[in-house]
């Protein structure tokens, strides 16, 4: 049996163990505790703006045969003006052309359409929406 094959697992341990030690010391050093303390202090100093309302973000693109039907169904059965919720329907533009809102269902006062260029995926669009301070 070849000597290098026989001790292959020892070589792996000798290579991986120092790497793990370095990663552990990097992520779990004492400054992480200080950062955690700073985060707790910062979060306790922030004022809460809890209003008891729910935020619903629906990112919609008319690229599928069923997408319009799904949107209509959700608005018809899921959106009500009496609910303590704010609905934002982000309409992803295809080929930089604005979505014609006249062909979409009418929204109650607590729901809104927002046009957005489809330059990022759905989660990126949610991040864009939250960074705009619309709510």
Topology:
Blueprint: H1 3-6, H2 8-27, H3 30-45, E1 54-60, H4 67-78, E2 85-93, E3 111-117, H5 122-131
Parallel strand pairs: 1-2, 2-3
Briefly characterize the structure:
By secondary structure, the protein is of the alpha/beta class. Helix content is 46%, strand content 17%.
Notable features of this structure?
single chain, 5 helices, 135 residues, alpha/beta, 3 strands, three-stranded parallel beta sheet, 2 domains
Task: Report what the structure shows.
This protein has two domains: 3-45; 54-131. Helix 4 (67-78) links the parallel strand 1 (54-60) and strand 2 (85-93). The protein contains five helices and three strands, in the order H-H-H-E-H-E-E-H. A three-stranded parallel sheet has the order 1-2-3, covered by helices on one side. It has 135 residues and is of the alpha/beta class.
Question: How many DSSP H or I helices?
Answer: 5
Radius of gyration: 25 Å
Count of all domains: 2
Strand content: 15-25%
Structure class: alpha/beta
Query: What gap, in angstroms, lies between the N and C termini?
Result: 69 Å
The tally of strands reads 3
Mean pLDDT: 79
CA-based shape:
elongated
Low-confidence stretches: none
Query: Main β-sheet: number of strands, strand sense, barrel status?
Result: 3 strands, parallel
Give the SSE string.
Answer: HHHEHEEH
Query: Reading side by side through the largest sheet, how are the strands ordered?
Result: 1-2-3
Helix amount, in percent?
40-55%
């Amino acid at each position: 049996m070849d000597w290098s094959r026989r001790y292959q697992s020892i070589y792996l341990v000798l290579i991986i163990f120092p790497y793990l030690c370095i990663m552990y010391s990097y992520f779990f050093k004492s400054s992480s505790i200080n950062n955690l303390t700073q985060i707790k202090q910062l979060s306790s100093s922030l004022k809460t703006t809890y209003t008891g309302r729910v935020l619903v973000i629906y990112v919609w693109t008319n690229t599928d045969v069923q997408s319009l039907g799904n949107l209509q169904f959700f608005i018809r059965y899921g959106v009500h003006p009496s609910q303590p919720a704010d609905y934002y329907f982000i309409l992803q533009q295809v080929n930089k052309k604005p979505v014609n809102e006249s062909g979409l269902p009418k929204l109650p006062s607590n729901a809104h359409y927002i046009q957005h260029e489809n330059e990022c995926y759905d989660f990126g669009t949610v991040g864009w929406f939250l960074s705009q301070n619309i709510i």
